[in-house]
Structures are given as structure tokens and as C-alpha cells.
Design a protein that fits this description.
Elements (H helix, E strand, L loop, with lengths): L6 E2 L33 H21 L8 E5 L3 E4 H24 L7
Antiparallel strand pairs: 1-2, 2-3
């Protein structure tokens, strides 16, 4: 289970034998605690997404001058990751979702308007 916030951790580059975890080999089943709630209106989901993106952008600006390797959290599958690794994982995760959305929109029978 992920910790509730950052904790100082050793920098991988200064730790002998430290190996950064490889990304997962493909889709993995997420723990139920992170499953989205069902039944929300699309307007609410889009507003929540916009709010989360803005909050993320502001957080990145605030920590831009900080070495992200100094803070670690535990990922439920990949283990201990530093903040830089979390950022990279987030980019990959969002890219996977974008590819899924594009595939759905390109499928035969998907409404064009």
C-alpha cells in the first residue's frame, strides 16, 4: 500500500548496486482501492480531470527546483519509486490511456458526432 506522502529516501545514483525498477511488462490489474466510482456524469468527470491536471501542473512547478530522487513512495507492484520515477510512470500510464481512447474512437461503429 502506498504511503500517504513523500519520505526522504536514498538517491539511487549514489547507492551502490541500486537498480531502477523496469516498467511493468504490460497491463496489470490495479488494486480495488484505486478503481473509479461508477455513475458520474461526463461533465463532472471532465471537470475533475481539469482540476487534477491543474493541481499536478502547480505541484510540478513548486518542486521544479527540488531533486525528485530525494523523495520516495511505495508503488503497489513496482515497489519503492522516487518522485522522478513516479513522474515517468505517470507519463507512460497516461499514454496507455490515450492509446486506449484512440482505439475506441477508431473502432467501427463509434459515433462520429
Amino acid at each position: 500500500m502506498a504511503s500517504s506522502g513523500p519520505s526522504p529516501g536514498p538517491r539511487c545514483s549514489s547507492t551502490p548496486g541500486c537498480v531502477r525498477p523496469a516498467p511493468p511488462p504490460g497491463p496489470a490489474k490495479a488494486p480495488e482501492v484505486v478503481y473509479p466510482e461508477r455513475g458520474h456524469q461526463i461533465e463532472r468527470l471532465l471537470a475533475d480531470l481539469a482540476t487534477t491536471r491543474e493541481r499536478s501542473r502547480q505541484a510540478i512547478e513548486r518542486v521544479a527546483a527540488v531533486d525528485p530522487r530525494a523523495f520516495t513512495w511505495r508503488h503497489f507492484t513496482l515497489g519503492e519509486l522516487d518522485l522522478a520515477q513516479w513522474w515517468l510512470l505517470h507519463v507512460r500510464h497516461e499514454t496507455d490511456h490515450l492509446q486506449q481512447l484512440r482505439a475506441v474512437k477508431a473502432a467501427a461503429g463509434f459515433p462520429t458526432s
